């Protein structure tokens, strides 16, 4: 497991949110063989060590919906003074990424997922936005439903947000950046791809379930004025990774201080035990 740390400058970030930290977790796939309670507890422990202000969870937390009542309560131990926020992924809807024609197998609807997440102290955002408030200023978290299964509604989620305010979108899939109104979003945090799981030098991801995988499978992406970070995931549904380790990400937000300033990225491996 790799701990990745990066700083992302945003032009519209309110001064009160300078230095805000977000721990980003995606694609735990709890319940898959090898992704049992001990693995999830280890991810929670390592995330808490980062001391983030906010934790965001980007979908596919459980491999099958039947695992939810066993594994979601383990996430109640995540610690974040600014709250724990989540969006849904394709596995929560029972949709297999490799086939759009396979019938979804999730018995849960959105309201059932809301209740399950709430029991663990997690606020689930489904095509809606909620503000973080500091010093009288607001930073909006905009959570969309799963783009992979076509359930997202970014335009609808942005309705409550005032003109000119800073917006952070939580999306399971990086393909959200193809939405016509994506320019209204300052930062997208996404997952789904697992970074391709197999990353070949000079080639990139072997397979990644997104459009333009060489550009969007992992890491920082710039789309006009919108920045996106794509997590490589803290788990997987196929037990194979080469050149693409699992990750927990700590994002620090800062204000743009000079024209043309871009996101700065650095790596920090902290000896987290592989799971």
Task: List the SSEs and their pairings.
Elements: E1 2-10, E2 21-25, H1 37-49, E3 54-57, H2 68-71, E4 84-86, H3 110-119, E5 122-124, E6 128-134, E7 137-143, H4 154-157, E8 167-170, E9 187-190, E10 199-200, E11 204-205, H5 213-216, E12 219-223, E13 226-230, E14 247-255, E15 264-267
Parallel strand pairs: 1-14, 2-3, 3-4, 4-5, 7-8, 8-9, 9-13
Antiparallel strand pairs: 1-15, 2-14, 6-7, 10-11, 12-13
Overview of the structural elements:
- With 275 residues, the protein is α/β, with parallel strands linked by helices.
- The protein has a single domain (2-267), classed as Purple Acid Phosphatase, chain A, domain 2 (4-Layer Sandwich).
- Helix content is 13%, strand content 27%.
- Strands 5-4-3-2-14-1-15 form a seven-stranded mixed sheet. Strands 6-7-8-9-13-12 form a six-stranded mixed sheet. Strands 10-11 form a two-stranded antiparallel ribbon.
- A hairpin with a 2-residue loop joins strand 12 (219-223) and strand 13 (226-230).
- It is globular.
- Residues 263-275 have low confidence and may be disordered.
């Amino acid at each position: 497991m790799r701990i990745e740390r990066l700083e992302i400058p945003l032009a519209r970030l309110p001064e009160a949110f300078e230095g805000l930290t977000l721990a980003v977790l995606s694609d735990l796939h709890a319940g898959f063989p090898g992704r049992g309670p001990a693995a999830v507890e280890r991810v929670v422990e390592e995330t808490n060590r980062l001391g983030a202000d906010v934790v965001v969870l980007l979908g596919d937390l459980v491999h099958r919906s039947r695992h939810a009542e066993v594994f979601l309560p383990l996430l109640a131990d995540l610690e974040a003074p600014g709250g724990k926020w989540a969006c849904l992924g394709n596995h929560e809807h029972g949709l297999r990424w490799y086939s759009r024609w396979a019938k979804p197998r999730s018995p849960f609807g959105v309201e059932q997922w809301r209740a399950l997440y709430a029991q663990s102290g997690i606020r689930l955002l489904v095509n809606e936005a909620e503000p973080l408030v500091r010093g009288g200023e607001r930073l909006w978290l905009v959570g969309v439903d799963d783009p992979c299964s076509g359930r997202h509604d970014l335009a609808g989620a942005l309705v409550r947000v005032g003109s000119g305010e800073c917006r952070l979108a939580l999306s399971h899939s990086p393909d959200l950046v193809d939405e016509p109104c994506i320019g209204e979003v300052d930062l997208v945090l996404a997952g789904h791809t697992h970074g391709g799981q197999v990353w070949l030098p000079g080639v990139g991801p072997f397979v990644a379930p997104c459009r333009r995988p060489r550009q969007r499978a992992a890491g920082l992406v710039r789309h006009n004025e919108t920045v996106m970070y794509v997590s490589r995931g803290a788990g997987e549904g196929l037990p194979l990774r080469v050149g693409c380790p699992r990750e927990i990400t700590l994002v620090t937000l800062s204000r743009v201080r000079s024209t043309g300033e871009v996101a700065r990225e650095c790596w920090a491996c902290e000896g987290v035990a592989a799971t």
